[in-house]
Structures are given as structure tokens and as C-alpha cells.
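agent: user wants the structure for UvrABC system protein A from Marivirga arenosa. delegating to structure tool.
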Amino acid sequence: MSLTKEAKNNTQNATTASQEEFIEVIGAREHNLKNIDISIPRDKLVVVTGISGSGKSSLAFDTIYAEGQRRYMESFSAYARSFIGNMERPDVDKINGLSPVISIEQKTTSKNPRSTVGTLTEIYDFLRVLYARAGEAISYKTGKKMQRQTEDQIIEHLISEFPDAKLSILAPVVKGRKGHYRELFQQIRKMGFTKARVDGVILEIDARMQVDRYKTHDIEIVVDRIVVDKKDKYRITQSVKTALKHGNGIMMVRDTDGNVHHFSQNLMDPETGLAYDEPAPNSFSFNSPYGACPTCKGLGELENITKETVIPNPKLSISRGGIAPLGEYRDIWIFKKVDALLKNTDVNLSTPIEKFPEEVLNVLLYGSKMKVEVNSKKYPGTKWSTSFEGIIKFLQKQQESGTDKMRDWLEEYTVIQKCPDCNGLRLKKESLHFLIDGKNISELALMSIGDLGNWFEGIESRLSEKQNLIGAEVLKEIRKRLGFMLDVGLDYLSLDRPLKTLSGGEAQRIRLATQIGTQLVGVLYILDEPSIGLHQRDNTKLIAALQDLRDLGNTVMVVEHDKDMMLASDFILDIGPGAGRHGGKIVAAGNPDEFLKQNSKTAKYLKEELAIEIPKERRKGNGKKLQLKGAKGNNLKNVNVDFPLGTMMCVTGVSGSGKSTLIHDTLYRILNQKFYRSKKDPMEHDSIKGLEHLDKVIEVDQSPIGRTPRSNPATYTGVFTDIRALFSNLPEAKIRGYKPGRFSFNVKGGRCETCEGAGMKLIEMDFLPDVHVPCETCKGKRYNRETLEVRFKGKSISDVLDMTVEQAVEFFTNQPKILRKIKTLSEVGLGYITLGQHATTLSGGEAQRVKLATELSKKDTGNTFYILDEPTTGLHFQDIEHLLTVLQKLVDKGNTVLVIEHNMDVIKVADYLIDLGPEGGTGGGNIVFTGTPQKIIKLKNSYTGKFLKAELKA
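agent: tool returned. relaying C-alpha cells verbatim.
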């Protein structure tokens, strides 16, 4: 039966419409996805959710994004593709209706100390243009405005200001530099000039003239000597032209009284003769030699080896290891030199260093040209005459030109200090003396985005007409970009903030702000948990920003667990029902109203049919506390805080309120120095009491557990050592004489030598990120054939690494030592990851839970202080419930757990809250509240209290 022409057209139109309205994914099987088919509406805000490890990222990033990227690469010419190589097609039958895809992930933050918020958003680049073209130059010597003069203005000035005066016209050729300048004098003589002014004295130039090469000199050519008269204007003009030519736009005039007057076509201080180069945008760049502070090379800080790091305990003598890099006395050359150096002093190797005279200590640390006589071991009776360069001087030389191993060793004696020349501002002196409305570029970079936005508001009324004319377009662009940053709740960041100090969520929101600024249409954006590190108050701003991106005509797909984000979306896609092999299916999908009618676990939590229980009673603690007084780091306003021990504490507050400064940079560093002698100094504070009540501090952050495929959960938790010991004790291994090292993929013997036990080979992609491909010899198994022949319960060592934690718990039931460590991984909700999963593929939240499991498997003392920073990152409601159970167990054993968190489910179950704020940046840094969750909800000025009130139904 054939279709009529009209029916055919209708069918074609319907197909086209469906392709235009939906992204259709058919037969997705990537990772743990179970051959799923799904139609995702286009030009909508779509949330992909589900418990950790259920397959959300596999669908969003590894299938949809990977296919979009592959298709984009296919559009390149064959020649371009030959450099890139073929991208592997994701395991999916078909994807229809796919737009160009942009992925905004969290792992793309630069660790380069030169990358800042300003450089990433390009706001700083626009500021550089503005300062180069509209900045007013001020002399750093007199504080007066620098002047530019044209040739005609200089001539008119000479005629009007020096009538009938006898003047020498000078062209400066050397300013404040060392050298003998023999060739320069010869060159000046060849040009026909007979006199030069050298260091203030006019001299005749003779054939062999030169100056002291080790002294600093100022040299000017005497171009002409004139009596100023209007009739001689032609001669004056020619002399001025010649002087400006040889002086590179600068000239000087000396009168009969010896007074010198300066003139310049460039920027110059007429009083002192100080001249600046013509400003260009790179004059304000700390990444360019034209703008960077020469001392710190634009980093704003220096790595210094100091007296305090080299001599940590001055009560010790040199022979007992008082000079830390040398260690205790040994019969070696350096100690003999030091001994010979101290021969003619009142101290020796056995004298405590604190009793050394200051001048002796300085020679010991910084050296002296004085020769010392050292007895020769090789030729008894003879002495070596040698100078002593100083211990710190020697270490500094090694720091600059030593091997990587030497530099790593020297880190122990290195402290990071603010650059004394630029005071941490990164730019050279001249660049910091170009002002707009009384502020230099670094002062603007130090402001928070919020304050900077206010400063630019109405700036036109404070600028000159010329500045407004030059800066009109630049100001418009700066304001637009600042507006996008404010829209995504980043008003508390400053432009000079290094990217490496940002959380994944902050970096992601900066990139989101940049994308909103591009105003692209018809794009599919895929984001990975942009709400990380965001207080509920700012969440609404983020949701509005994503909706703006959608309203431009884009599809926005967000992998997210946030309740507000789900309810504000147009479509929710829930993947599950479990993690790993138990996941990979679509369990619910639809707009929020339809979704809530379905029975998935996520829907139940949203409907509050399932909820995290609020404890009936809050712990009072063990009566002991840490008392921190006078914390003043960054934006903290001299705060005093008590931390009750034996409780689960939660530190809350809007983004930028000072939580990380208080906990990471102050409290953790104090504890770390106390228990582990850490070299990192805490931020400024007055005092701390109560340290004697603790014996250990553990920070569980989201940094990777390793940066190569060699690191994995089994090696990090230490369980792999026990598994290797088990395999080496098997009869087959004993017959073959295999020791535990045979089962290590990091040493020669049992590993595959093609990939050196990595299971992967690194393919360098030149201008693209490097790619790891499975090793063709061992097919990713890491070991050679002989090692794989040893089996435990039918499984080789490689099979064990491929097991999920869940499978391993069953497999090692009768191995208590191994089971204890693996079980803790399962308890923190990581049952779905494999023991040998490459560290590079773990998310920040997963890495954090691997670390937590490692700590849990250790024997605790009951006096441990645990610090966790946003452990709910990447966790579904159900996973948060598991995590809280684990944390509560730790507190029940007498330990103290402190969590920095924005998630209301964690905040509501805490025993004690410390709320900072009230705002971010300069508006924060105060303690808004301390006490139980029930009390904070009564507080009017706490944003946390306001949102918690709704959560507690109070």
C-alpha cells in the first residue's frame, strides 16, 4: 500500500520537526550504559541526575559531547586531521539533531601561577588597553604629572625662557650604567662631536678616551653651545633636532650656573629628568618583560631560602645538626671548611648556634671573600686555601641551576615571600604610576568584581573629554564582562586571583560567564555540576544565567544534583537505579511536574517521601574546645572562634565570606605545623588554645589521588600491598619463586615492559591534549603472561584490579586484612569504582571519598580532627545519606569532624554551625553566628539561616 503525496509530505515534515525539536540518542552503550534510547528536548534547560556512578557523565560527556566533538573534527580537512588522528566513535548506534557542542567541565583549571581571573575573562586585557591609551603618567620621584613636548614646543620654550643665556645642548646616551665605553667615545668622535659631559663634567674627547668600567656613569654628547637669540632660531632648531635624534627623544640643556633642564618627546618629569617609555598594552602585563617586576618576574612572590628555614633550632650546635641542610657532623669537606672558618673565632662546631656572634653567622650563611686554610686529607701536611661562599648562597645557586631532584630537596628550606620591590603587585615601578581616576591598574585588579563594577559605574563623569573619547568602546566591553561575572555570583573574586586557587565550580562559572558573553545561538552546552561551591543564595543567580543562555536559543544540559536546579529546569533525566553495573538505565524522565509523578529515588527525595533524618539530639561535645583568636587573613576581620571538640561542625556562609581562609589557611595550617612540622605558615592570627586535646589532623580535600594512570584506589588505600602479599603466598607463586614485587606494575619483573605496567600508552598530540590508548602487547592488563598465570580463586592479579569494589568485597570475604580496607570504600558509596581505576578518571568528589575511606580504614585515636571541604560534591541525596552515616561514626568514636559545606542536608544534621559573612569579599569576614541549627533560623541577617528555616520546616 503506497502513501499519497500529501501523507508523504506530512511524514517528512513530522520527521524534520522531531529532529529539530529533540536530540535523539539511540543505542548508547558507553561504559555502563545499557543500550539506552532517549529523546532530549532542544533549546531547553535539561538536568541529568542520578546517584554517583549511575552513568550521567557517560551519557552527557562520553556519548553526546564525544560524538559532537568527533563530528566537528570530521569537518576538518584531511591534512588537518592527519595531525589530530582519528577520534574514536562513542559506543552509540545513532544521535540525531545534534548541535555544535561546548563542554564546560571542572577539570580544565590552569595550574599556571601566571593565569588569573583577569587573564581568563580577558577583563585585565581590556584594562591594559585602557591604561596604555588613556592612563595619566605620574613621576614616581616627585608625584607630578609627566610631560610630553613636541620639537616645536621645546624650541619655543628655550627661546622664551632663556633669552640671551649661554646654554650647552646635551644628548644623553648612557644613563646609570657600568662600562668603559671606549667604543662609544670613538663613535661620538667619528660623528664630529668634540666634547662629552661625563658624570657632570664636560670633557674633550680624545682618541683613547675611556672611563672606569666598574663604576656607574651618565654620559651626554655636547651637541652645541649657543647663546639664545631669536635670530639664531635655525641653528637652535638644528641643534635640538640633532640632540633629540641621538638622545632617542630626550635632551638636556645646561646653563652657565651648572643647572640642568630636561626635555623629552616621550613622558618625562621636567624636574628630575625621569623618563618613561611610551606605554603599550604589554607595559601593564605581568607576563611580559616590558611590564613585569624584574625582581619576581611578574609572579608577585619569591621563593627564598631564609636563615629560619636553614637553622630551625638555634639551640643546637653545628655538629648536632643545627644547620638543617648539612645534618649532623660527618668527616666531609663542608664540615672541614666550616671548622676552618671558625678557627679564629670564639665559637666552634660544638657551640650552640644561638651563641654565635651576628657577623660570624652572616659569614657562615652568606659567605666571605676571605680565604680559609683547610687541611688536605689526600696530601697530609698540606693545606688548601679556599674561599667560603656561604651555605644559603650555595643553596640558592643550586635552586637556580641544580637538578630537579636537588630543587625538590630544597623545597624543604624554601619559603614563599611577597616580592619586596613590587609588594606583590607583579608590575614594574613605572607601570604602577599610570593612573586613571587616581588608581593604578593593580589597585583595580585587587578589587572584588562587585567593587570594581561599582567603580566603573559612572566613570565617564570622572574622566577628561580626551580619556572618554579614547576609552568609550573599552569601557563598554569591560562593563559587559563584569556584568556576566556578577550574573553567575562571582562578585567576591578579584581579577588578580590565581586560577589555581579556585574551586572547580568557580572556574566553571567563569567559563560560563565567558560563554554567555559570546552570545552564540543554536549551541548545545554541557556543564558538570556548576553549583559546586555556591551558597543557596547565589544559586538563583546561576539558574537565571543558565536560563539566559537557553533563552538565546541554546540547549543547556547540566549534570547536577541540586534540588533548586532540577525544579527550575524544563526537563529532568534520571539515570540509575544503582551505580556501576547496577546503573546505566533511564529510570525517569520528563518536565518537573511529570517527573515528580514518577517513582525514582530522585523523585522521592524531591517530593520528600525520602529525606535525610534530622537528629533528635545534637551532641554537646566532650567539653574541650579549640579557641582561635584574632584571625585576620585575607578578608577576615579579627575574628575569634571556638571549635567544640567531639562534635560534627559545619562552617557555612556565602561564597567568598572567608570560610577557606579561616579553616584551610589558618586553622589547618596551625594544626599541620603543630603535628607534622609543616613549612606553610598559617595566616595572621593572635593565638590558639586547646591544641593539647588533639593528636592528629587530617584534611580530606578534592585534589587528585594521583596524576598518572599508575595511581588508583587500590594503591592509594594501601590494599594493593596486601593483595600482592596474598598472591605471592599462593603455591604457584612459591614454586616459581615470585615475591610481592613480581605483582607490582611499577617495577621490572612481572609487569608488561612495553607500557612499563601502565596498561596505557601516552600518545602526544602536539597542540591538543595528550591521549592514553590501551597497550597493544598486554591489552591493558599491565602484566606479562607469566605473572597472569598465578591465580587466586581463578582470578589473576589483573582481574582483581578490574573488579569493582562491590565485587571485591564478596571476593575477599575470608581475607580480613584486605576486606577491612575495601569495605570502607564501599561504605563511602564507592562500590561502583574498580580497584585499578586510573586516578585521572576519578572526579574530585570520588577522589575525596577514596581519601576518606583510606583514613577510615586506619586505626583512629579518638582525638583526630578531620577537615572536609564540600564532601557532597558529585553526590546524590542517597550518597549524601551514606556519607553522613560514615562521618557520624567518626564523631561517635570521639573524633571531631569539621565540614565546609553549602548543602542544606549536611548543615541541618550538624551539631554546631559557624556561619561567616554576611556577604562575600570585603563585605564578609565576620562571624555571623555560632551555635546549633535550631538557633540560626531565628537570625535575621544570616542567609544560611533563611534557607535552613525552609529545610527544617520551622
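agent: one observation worth passing along. The CA atoms of residues 267 and 602 lie 66 Å apart.
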